[in-house]
Every structure is written in structure tokens, then in C-alpha cells.
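For the sake of transparency, this paper describes our internal protein records without simplification. The record that follows is passed on verbatim for readers who wish to inspect the format:
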Amino acid sequence: MTAVSRGIDRIEVTFDEPNLVANAGLLLVATLTVRLGLERLINTTVHLSGRVGGALPGRKVLTLVHALTAGGSHIDHAEILRSGATQAVLAHRVMAPSTLGTFLRAFTFGHVRQLDRVLGEALRRAWALGAGPGSGQLVMDLDSTICAVCGKDKHGAGYGYTKELGYHPLIATRAQTGEVLHVRMRKGAAATQRGAKRFVEELVARVRRAGATGELFMRFDSGFWSNTTLATLERLEVGYTMGVKMIKAVVSAVEGIEESAWTPIDYSVDGEAEVAECDYKGRRLIVRRTRLVGRQATLWPQWRHFAFVTDLDGKTADVDAFHRAHATVELAIRDLKEGAGLEHVPSGNFFANSAWLLCAALAHDLIRWTAMLGAITPDDKLTVARTVRTRFLSIPGRLVSRSGRPVLRTPLKWPWADAFERALDLLRGLPPVPV
């Protein structure tokens, strides 16, 4: 046995320090939570009085949200907020996991819609503080995802087109930042376009109320293809690109494109791609065809076609590049799952899981608003929850009193100490929330 290992073996471990803070950086998120007035907002919007576990919803929702922000993925993970002096860096009382479970099971469809209004109002308040697009363009990506579950006791879980048991929520994100603008929990067997029309209408109304006064654009994959949704977008004057399925009528339209109309575009080293356009039922149809080249060409020798309809103007190649950027929605969804606890749905009750989804969306957005308003993430980079958590939230600390003033002592030579202090000053300097 080496001297080093003997030294490690001599370390005694005790869990008895009441002043330690497990995730001292939650002070940043909690500061923004206070500036947004979230606890009062939840208490005045979500009305669960008379239901078991329904009292004081503000502190219960924020307990869940802050636990998810700290990296939790189960209700029991709220216990990390009750360790040491961690509760002191939050602006609310932390509730026990058993209480939170009862609280979530108290939700009905109407209560879920109330909590959804909290997300919309929180978005308006955060954008009013400087996180919004203002009069600039707002690009929104809509997609659905699978929240997989194990076991058949989850109410509403089902097998969708992926043949995977779970739920199938709709999610709308802001392309520039990855913020979740709107979510809707759905049963696992729901088709992608189910509920899309109403979801789009609610989304447009929400971002307009939140202060987005500029042009609106939405991008969809082919799973959302629906004449009803297209008509809704045109009625609401929202620009769009929407993938279409290669059904017989679309294939016929593509086959009518002259060979000379195809324009090469930049693509991967092992492949080539060209774009062209034509008319399809009075709408602009842009088509991209791709194939492999070089040594791999025999695996994929023929052209494969991908098409979408759009009402946007501009060069074919530019509009195609804009539509392809829709793929970044997968990064936001992955971060919602891995960074804000949606990789797990905790309850056997559908509406409890719907409320959990909204808590996860709020935690996801709070991380991004903290990064934006605290100047943590550069404007040209997407915020990643795990990065923010590692650098700024999961800092160990010790809460002490110095001349009667509470002081949070954190590690010497922390690499991102200057950025943390600057972010805290910026967040504390935000004006009172516009109610």
C-alpha cells in the first residue's frame, strides 16, 4: 500500500456540518426567482385549495423546480435542498418529498392549465427584464418527443410510432436560446399532429403577450404536416417551413422538376446535396436531394429526397439552410431531459406527470434566463444546463455570519468566481418585476 492511499484511508467522514450548502450557486437562480415574483405568482394562479396537499402551491412548485435545477430527476431528490444550510440560499421553505408527491397527485386537467399559465407569465416577466426578442425576429421550433417509462402502471402511457412505451409531449422552443415556450403532455399513442392547431394558436398568443412584437416564424418536421395547421399559420400571419411526407402527389411534383433546376449546396465530405423548388397545391415546395459519394457510394447510390412547404421568400438554398436548422430543437429537448429532469416521469397519475413536465420546463427556462440576464453564456452559444450547473450552481459553500451579515464562503481559486460574482450583481440589479 502506497503512502498516498494510506493518507486517503486516514480521512474520516462525518455528516454533521449544519452550515454547509450543497449547491451554493442556486443563489443565482433563487435571486432571479425572487425578481420574477414566482412564488406569489404560483400562489395566486394555481388554486388547489380543498384538495389534499393543495395548500401553498408556490413553495411546493419552487421546491420541485429548484431540485430539478440542481440536477434532480426524482421527487426524492428534493432532499438535497434540505441538507445543511442549502435552504438558506433559497427564498422559500423547502418541502419534503412525501408532501410533493401528494401535491402532484392533487392536480387535475384544470390545475395543469393553471400551472401552464404560470409558465406563460414567467416568460413574459423574464422577457420584460431583457431576455426577450423584443421587436426582433422570433424563430420557434416545434417537435414532439418520447418520455419513456418502465412498466404499464403509468396512466396514459402507450406505444407510439417508435414502439416505445411512454408519453408523447409537444414542445415548442425558441431557436436562438433553447427556451421552452410552450409544452403539452399527451398520451403515448398520440400522433405527432394531434392537438397541433390549438397548440400553435396558444403559442402565438403566448409570445405576443410576452412582448414579441416582431416577425414570427415556426419550423416543423413532416410529422406535423397538416393543411389545418398550415391554414392556421397563414391566418395568424406566422412564417413557416413544414416538412412533407413523400406521398405519391409530392413525388409526382418532384419528378416534374427539370434537371437543370437543381443547385448544389454545401454538404458533408462523404456526400453531395442539391436543392430545387416547385409549386405544390399553390404553396412553395422546396426539395433537397442527397446521396453518398466516394467509397461509400455503393451503399447509397440513388438520390434521396426531402421536401418542405414554406411561405418564406429568398433563395432556395438559403431557405433550405434555415429549415435544416430546425434540427437544433433536438439539442433543447435533450437538455430538457438531461438537464431539467424530464428523463423521468415520477407518477402513475397522468396529470401529476403533466405538472412535472411544466416544472421541468420552468427549471429549464430559469437556467437559461439566469445565464442570459447574468451574462454567463455568450450570445452566439446555446446554454447547456450541465455546463451552467458544473460552473455556477453546484459550488460547495459554507454559510457563516460576519459582523451580523450572512456570508457564503465558497472554494478558493474557483475557476469561474469572477463570472459568478458578476452574474449575481447583474441579477440583483434587475428592476422590480413588471406585474
Summary: The mean pLDDT is 92. DSSP finds 14 helices and 15 strands in the chain. The CA atoms of residues 4 and 10 lie 10 Å apart. The longest strand covers residues 271-280.
